[in-house]
Amino acid sequence: MTSIALKSFVGLRQSSAEKPHYFISHSSQTKSRKLKLNFHVIKASKSSPKLTNRNLRVAVIGGGPAGGAAAETLAKGGIETYLIERKMDNCKPCGGAIPLCMVGEFDLPLDIIDRRVTKMKMISPSNVAVDIGRTLKPHEYIGMLRREVLDAYLRDRAKANGAEVINGLFLKMDMPKDGDSPYVLHYNGYDEKAGGVGEKRTLEVDAVIGADGANSRVAKGIGAGDYDYAIAFQERIKIPDDKMAYYEDLAEMYVGDDVSPDFYGWVFPKCDHVAVGTGTVTHKGDIKKFQLATRNRAKDKILGGKIIRVEAHPIPEHPRPRRLLGRVALVGDAAGYVTKCSGEGIYFAAKSGRMCAEAIVEGSENGKRMVNEGDLRKYLEKWDKTYWPTYKVLDVLQKVFYRSNPAREAFVEMCADEYVQKMTFDSYLYKQVAPGNPWQDLKLAVNTIGSLVRANALKKEMDKLSV
Questions:
Q1: Which of 18, 62, 109, 448: disulfide with 212, CB 3.0–4.6 Å?
Q2: Average pLDDT over the chain, rounded to whole?
């Protein structure tokens, strides 16, 4: 059977200057005597040396969903695993929404999920509100959780499976001299002995997974290149109980130039408070102005609330030009795996961490052999093949519907359609492209064009009034 390795692409660019290696074998068919070409990807595990008196050593830098999922998978797979994280109580400014499939796929306990959202309101620039969620089945919901809770749970589970969790600040790494030499990691260790200043330490490993977020030092260490990023700003607000009851199973999303010129504002429920936030790529200096506008749009529903925490953090807007070099791979935000339009990143972070770790476990034959770039590249090939279409579609949606207030009005109008809601929720909850109905797809296309035509006509009228 013919098999051809897929190249990894970022948009329309190949992810690395390195190309997969191939060899061609010739086999003759007995009956036809015709020459047949069989393409095979060379498997590193067949040529990499066996390790003696030890298992493969892998360091995971960063203890978020990507790092926690990677470390657990590695440890379960027989890898000597180290997870380095500086902030064990980190509260990343994150909406905290996860799809239903993640609960089962990552075996998450229900008690770490603060709220099960079954209703959403999409609110247009003119404050037209559309209720979303009518197509959800009784057991379906969007999970809302706090990152500090999820991250700690995944790290603890990795530790329980054998990973060594190190409270440390990763500084840099020395590259190996050859394909079998170790990477030397430099970090500041924090424990009772080191105190608050930290103690300079080193660690030798055979491979590195960079899960250290948008400002990844691992990415800088392999020359992964820069990317556009958004600034996410979020306030956690404790609101009165009667108002919290309104958000018991409801989340809100606000669109408009006032809350963000290229993203959206949100009010997401947590255990005993709401998270109110927004983000932007193009106008980072105005983020506090957009945050104030988001609060003002929701002011009647959060009246009497007290801000208990303020958070801000960069969010990548597209994958980095390079996500792999040698025995170092990037996952999660470090790789740039956040979707446009929705800004979703938690599931994709955990999934990429697990996929990368699985490639290392497989390539090393459960820690018994050295790995090389060919083993880690399998993770990128699988990732791009599975998720590249999702990222591209959401990129197009953001460019079409987030470009002006009239376009946002058209977007909210579309969200009222039950077919749109069903397709959207089915794709989001299960991370699979939902099969469509051809007739409904045609109607949707016509309605979309009609909404955009009305939006453009409205924009022209508004432009005339502003002259």
A1: 62
A2: 85
